């Protein structure tokens, strides 16, 4: 056969592949004993209830489980206050987002994004055949330009995607602004992956607006990143529609039992959140005091840090920190960001202090 690619869909073949690792991907994977401040993971082990549930679940992995995940949806209903009929479970919130894009986008449809934002969005929009319409955020704090977002809505617009808290900036959109967007004749995806760390969440808007689709995850605050549990909250009509796209048994039994256990331990979640907020405040204060660095206020479990000292790049700082066994993520050159940046995940206080000490030493030498 001369050209196997003739069978490919051209717009999928032209799509990028999301790679979370960057230039230090091998180190991210291999140096698990180093300080992992690059992937917005929880620095804490999961709740003891999770460990117990996983150990028990192992004995039943030979069985097929309820593909509707009724028990987990009931646990999520108890956690969120929404009926289980308004909740759909996915293999991480990334799968939920992919379901949404594939379910609502026809080839040529437009989706409005605001850069800087989560780089997975445009990739999966492209795979679904859609076109990303980017409305740049406003300087100096990279806030959403709501008037321009609304102005960008056309008859071809299917979705507006808002991540709040935003990755990589860490800021949140004001409720009055998201309400203004929701007042338009368009579906709005509100990605609250980092919602547990924010002072205020906007999930409650799903009680008022039929055109909002909330996505959430247990990867961050609950510490279940490797088990891949995400969910969406929307109208029963949207949930039923997305269920037709969902692959049966899309979440494994061990992950489901772990998630149910994690949701039951509210004291653990409170403790984790308090520690992350305390660590975030410490990092923001200390990094802001280092000459040549500017930390952005954050409502997530990470901070975006701009390098203001001339001739120092995000790559330079990323590698110099790695020399000190601190793994971060450079964000220079990312869509919508002007200048040189790194992103730093909040870890335990001991690890946060080591990071600050390393940054002070490196920046003194520059």
What does this structure look like?
- It is a single chain.
- By secondary structure, the protein is α/β, with parallel strands linked by helices.
- The chain folds into two domains: 22-45 and 267-365, Aspartate Aminotransferase, domain 1; 48-264, 3-Layer(aba) Sandwich (Aspartate Aminotransferase, domain 2).
- The chain is 37% helix and 15% strand.
- The protein contains 13 helices and 13 strands.
- The chain has helices at residues 10-13, 25-30, 48-57, 70-80, 93-104, 120-127, 146-152, 175-182, 236-243, 253-264, 266-288, 314-323, 349-365; strands at residues 35-36, 87-90, 110-113, 131-134, 157-163, 187-191, 212-217, 230-233, 293-295, 302-307, 326-327, 329-330, 340-345.
- The chain is globular and about 60 Å long.
- The N and C termini lie far apart (57 Å).
- The mean pLDDT is 93.
- Sequence stretches where pLDDT stays below 50 over 5 or more residues: none
- Class by alpha and beta content: alpha/beta
Individual helix count: 13
User: Helical amount among residues, as a percent range?
Assistant: 25-40%
- How is the main sheet built? 7 strands, mixed
Binned strand content: 15-25%
Strand order of the largest sheet: 2-8-7-6-5-3-4
Radius of gyration: 21 Å
Chain-averaged pLDDT: 93
Classified by CATH, the class of the largest domain is: Alpha Beta
> N-to-C SSE series?
HHEHHEHEHEHEHEEEHHHEEHEEEH
Number of domains: 2
Q: Assign the CATH topology of the largest domain.
A: Aspartate Aminotransferase, domain 2
Give the distance, in angstroms, between the N- and C-terminal Cα atoms: 57 Å
| Number of E-type strands | 13
């Amino acid at each position: 056969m001369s050209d196997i690619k003739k069978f490919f869909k051209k717009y999928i073949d032209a799509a990028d592949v999301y790679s979370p690792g960057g230039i230090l991907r091998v180190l991210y994977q291999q140096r698990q004993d180093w300080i992992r401040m690059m992937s917005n993971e929880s620095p804490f082990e999961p709740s003891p209830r999770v460990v117990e549930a996983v150990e028990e679940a192992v004995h039943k992995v030979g069985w097929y489980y309820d593909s509707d995940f009724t028990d987990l949806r009931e646990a999520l209903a108890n956690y969120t206050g929404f009926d289980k009929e308004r909740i759909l479970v996915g293999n991480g919130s990334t799968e939920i987002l992919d379901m949404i894009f594939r379910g609502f986008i026809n080839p040529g449809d437009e989706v409005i994004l605001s850069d800087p934002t989560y780089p997975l969005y445009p990739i999966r929009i492209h795979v679904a055949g859609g076109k990303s319409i980017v409305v740049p955020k406003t300087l100096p704090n990279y806030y959403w330009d709501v008037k321009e977002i609304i102005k960008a809505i056309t008859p071809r617009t299917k979705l507006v995607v808002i991540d709040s808290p935003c990755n990589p900036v860490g800021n949140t959109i004001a409720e009055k602004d998201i309400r203004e967007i929701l007042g338009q004749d368009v579906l709005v995806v509100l990605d609250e992956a980092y919602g547990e760390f924010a002072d205020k969440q906007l999930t409650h808007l799903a009680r008022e607006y039929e055109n909002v689709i909330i996505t959430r995850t247990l990867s961050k605050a609950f510490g279940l990143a490797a088990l891949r549990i995400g969910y969406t909250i929307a109208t029963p009509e949207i949930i039923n529609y997305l269920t037709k796209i969902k692959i049966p048994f899309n979440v494994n039994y061990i992950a489901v039992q772990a998630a149910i256990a994690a949701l039951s331990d509210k004291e653990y979640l409170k403790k984790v959140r308090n520690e992350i907020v305390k660590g975030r405040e410490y990092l923001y204060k200390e990094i802001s005091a280092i000459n040549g660095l500017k930390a952005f206020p954050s409502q997530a479990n990470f901070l975006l840090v701009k390098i203001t000292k001339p001739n120092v790049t995000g790559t330079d700082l990323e590698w110099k920190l790695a020399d000190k066994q601190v793994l971060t993520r450079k964000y220079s050159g990312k869509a919508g960001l002007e200048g040189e940046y790194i992103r730093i995940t909040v870890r335990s206080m001991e690890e946060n202090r080591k990071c600050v000490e390393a940054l002070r030493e490196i920046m003194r030498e520059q």
